UniProtKB/TrEMBL annotation:
One Pfam family it belongs to: Aldedh
Keywords: NAD, Oxidoreductase
Residue intervals of the Aldehyde dehydrogenase domain: 80-416
Origin species: Cyprinus carpio carpio
Cited PANTHER family: ALPHA-AMINOADIPIC SEMIALDEHYDE DEHYDROGENASE
Protein name per the record: aldehyde dehydrogenase (NAD(+))
EC number: 1.2.1.3
Membership in a protein family: Belongs to the aldehyde dehydrogenase family.
Catalytic residues as annotated in Swiss-Prot or TrEMBL: E312
Subunit and partners: Homotetramer.
UniProt GO molecular function: aldehyde dehydrogenase (NAD+) activity
Amino acid sequence: MRVSLGRVRQLFTMQRVLTQNVARLLALSLRTKLSPSVRAAAVNMSTLLVNRPQYSWLRELGLGEDNDGVYNGCWGGQGQVVTSYCPANNEPIARVRQATMAEYEETVQKAQDAWKVWADVPAPKRGEIVRQIGDALRGKIKALGSLVSLEMGKIYVEGVGEVQEYVDVCDYAVGLSRMIGGPILPSERPGHALIEQWNPVGLVGIITAFNFPVAVYGWNNAIALICGNVCLWKGAPTTPLTSVAVTRIVAEVLERNHLPGAICSMTCGGADIGTAMAKDERVGLLSFTGSTQVGKQVAMMVQERFGRQLLELGGNNAIIVFEDADLNLVVPSAVFASVGTAGQRCTTTRRLMLHESVHDDVVERIAKAYKQIRIGDPWDPNTLYGPLHTKQAVQQYLAAIDQAKQQGGTLVCGGKTEDEAFAWNNEVKQGLSSSIFTKDMGRVFRWLGPKGSDCGIVNVNIPTSGAEIGGAFGGEKHTGGGRESGSDSWKQYMRRSTCTINYSKDLPLAQGIKFE
């Protein structure tokens, strides 16, 4: 396994050209750094996109010039007014009034009251409500996907695909609502029954990031609801319109079924709201998606109150290509995993390890593929690489490429190349996603085994990104250890009780103890 210095530079040079093109795209609309007062004046003088005929579909999502950023059965928002901008052209879309701390307190109280109603609804009936939420999302999937593209910056097909994830997990949760439960265990004592009882944790706080402003909330929301919880959502401050639009769709379903709207509450805001959620003992589970740095702070605040947390943090994901790999799978996988969502996914490929026998061929093919990638307007169906979310993201990305070039070197391993490659995959602090390309079935199962990848997502012959909703999503080490979406992730949203029931007239003790 060899990664030569010259080829490392060539790979990073191609990535930098790609990124600089994106930077130039953003520079057209981000030439100057305006002060808050000047920026506000510019917004007032500009025509908001929501008022332009070509964006009339925003009205279909219930959005206007000024939008309430608090929902707890009633709409409100008396905090700071923020303007959401389109990353592709830096034009203002619309404004959102964020929550005050008083409104946060009111929302938590209403959510607690709503839980008293929701917890009494049988799980299959809760599943029916989630089914209706999925159907409501289906009805507005194109408009909502367009909003994700407009506000976040990802290409249109990815925006629609993200809403589809929420729809899919709703479908999954409907079936799960008739299946969750614990086992009946054999008791060693005559006339006794031993069972596991699962109950909701109560209020689930959900803090999501800008890169998936719909899907990650959907993973948490659909599963939390069928488990009998109520939800309080704080979306990313830079994608508040998406949070408002999604909440409006969900709220309509709840209101149509004569259920308290506070079952799915929302408080738009910044770090003050997030900190309050982390420290609030009334929040039975806090699900946080974001950077490892902020996630660590959140974890410490939640742990200080002995609370429960679900962390989905950053990744440093690798693709390992062995000598027997099918390069027709490798090249499109590597390109998609590095270019998809403009490289802003937590599962984005950041490291590529190539066996020396395929090294030159893979590099040449990737270079050719990069040249064919269309960069530009995220609504153009031919575009594969849209803008980065913010100007700061462009600067950080370029700095990361420079740092990677400076750290480039020659890596040569001896006879045990497989062990060396696995070790390289595991040497980073994060443990989210990983992938190898090989036809050797023995190697495949060693990769999946205890001495293989230490990540939460371990793939073979597919990219590091693009996970399905049926499996548990999450990672190890500095990625946080949380699991969302499928498999038995539902257990994170419930508390377990071991229950012993004596239906006899005797009182035998466990372990044969006599206490007479």
